Amino acid sequence: MKRPDTTQLRTVWRLIRIPTLLVALYLALRLILAALSQRHGFGSPDGMGLSYLTVAGLALALRIALLVIVPAVITYRIAAWAVTRVARWIEGGGFRRSGAGSKLLGHSRFTT
What we know:
single chain; 3 helices
């Protein structure tokens, strides 16, 4: 049996590693925040404690990162990939007007 190629797996993991870790951390913080809210939430006679405010602030920061920063990075990577592909395509010759398609457009290799 042949061992699987791990280069593709590593490439995919490199792309989704940080968003996956952020989502896992955010879900854990939501569970902690829910537990703290039951003990020290708005209905508590002691009021909101420092631990509740700290976890709420961290959850808010992670939510902003997940909703703003991660999509921005993904959009940047897609745009950079597209620009690189177009640049390589243009450098390689791009669309050439020769052959049967150029005759349909009214161009010929023999006319200038």
